[in-house]
Structure formats: C-alpha cells, structure tokens
Amino acid sequence: MSWGFLRDLLSGVNKYSTGIGRIWVAVVFIFRLLVYIAVAENIWKYEHDEFECNIKQPGCENVCFDHFFPVSHIRLWALQLIMVSTPSLLVVFHVAYRENREKHHNRKLYKRPGELDGGLLCTYLVSLILKTGFEIVFLVLFYKLYNGFKVPRLVQCDIRPCPNTVDCYISKPTEKMIFLYFLVATSCLCIVLNLSELSYLIFKYSIKCYLKRYIKKRQ
C-alpha cells in the first residue's frame, strides 16, 4: 500500500503542533514509518513460507503458524501506525472548520485559525489522549498475542492435525526480535512525548487562566 496519505497527514498537523508535537511527528515519520517501509516489510515478507516444522503432515504447519502468529507482526505494526496517526485528523478538521466559518461570515473570527486556543486546544488535547491510548493498547496487544516482546527460535506445537508434539522453526528470529524491540522503544518514546505535550499544554493554559484572573482582580 502507499503511505503517502499518512505522510501528508503528519505534514499537515505539523503546522499546528507545539515543539514537542513536532518532535513526535519526526519520530513517527523517520523512526517508525520509514523504518517500516524500508526494512521491516522485507523482514516479515515471507514469514509464513519460511516457517518450517519437522513434519510433513498436511495442515499441521499452517495450524501451528496460525496458533503462534494469530496476527502478523508487520500488519499489526501497520495498523498501529494508522491508528496513532488518525486522531491528528481531528485537529486538521477543526482548523478547516474555522477557516470555512470565516469564509462563510466573510470576516476575521480568529486571530489565526490554527492557533491552539479555545475549542481547538480542547480538540488537540483529545487527540493527544487518543494517540496515547492507542499506543498503550497496541503495546498490551503485542505483549498478550506473542507472550512477551520476543521471537523464539523454536516453538513446539501439538495442535491437531499434528499427530504429536512437533518442533517448528521461525526464520531470522534475532533480526525480527531486534526490530520488535525497536518498535516497542519508539512506541514508548511516543507515549512519553504525548504525555509531555499534554502536561505542557495543560500547565500553560492553567497559568494563562490564572494570570487573567489575577489581572482582573488587580484592576
């Protein structure tokens, strides 16, 4: 599939982000999307064909592969990239709504349609919460589906139609595990960046409200 739409989405949101948000966009684009396209897809490309068991019983190899890999790592990673990037659409839609509203009224309603204040700030905070939530959900999903963040060299399977316990071997386990760790590390980094940006915006807005109240009292 083409990842151009995701690149365009991240580039569009970058205009309305804070400094921390721009770092998040860079991490997603360089360390996740480009790594996925350039390297990870090729590593997992033939994972089913290269999965071998020491028995030729018809159906046994397919059943064992489905048991140990219910969802492909690479497809789950792709779904994670899409899901953590989608909440950014909320910000783009909100800015577009502001711009259309100004055109409809034919006058200036906002200092800058893309400025983080009022309703747009709330939308931005919601998008940060959703992105963080999706990251955590996918990390838990990875951990539960594969019994931890590891790729074993050998798995033993005794599921029918296998006549007995058979040994199955996973191709390039070390290489796959390195990139799985890289996935987890970048995902954790994105969670930290999202929480940092969320804390920064809440703190900044709280200080701004406090100063307004203080100035009113002084007046």
UniProtKB/TrEMBL annotation:
**Tagged with keyword Membrane:** yes
Q: Which residues form the Connexin N-terminal domain?
A: 42-75
Cellular-component GO terms for this entry: connexin complex
Which parts of the chain span the membrane according to its record? 21-39, 77-97, 118-143, 178-203
* Compartmental location: Cell junction, Gap junction; Cell membrane
Q: What membrane topology is given?
A: Multi-pass membrane protein
What are its GO biological-process terms?
A: cell-cell signaling
Q: What is its main location?
A: other
Which InterPro entries does the entry mention? Connexin, Connexin_CCC, Connexin_CS, Connexin_N, Connexin_N_sf
Q: Where is the signal peptide?
A: none
Q: Which GO terms describe its molecular function?
A: gap junction channel activity
Q: Which family does it belong to?
A: Belongs to the connexin family.
**Briefly, what is this protein's role?**
One gap junction consists of a cluster of closely packed pairs of transmembrane channels, the connexons, through which materials of low MW diffuse from one cell to a neighboring cell.
Assembly, per entry: A connexon is composed of a hexamer of connexins.
State the name under which the record lists this protein: Gap junction protein
| Natural source organism | Pelecanoides urinatrix
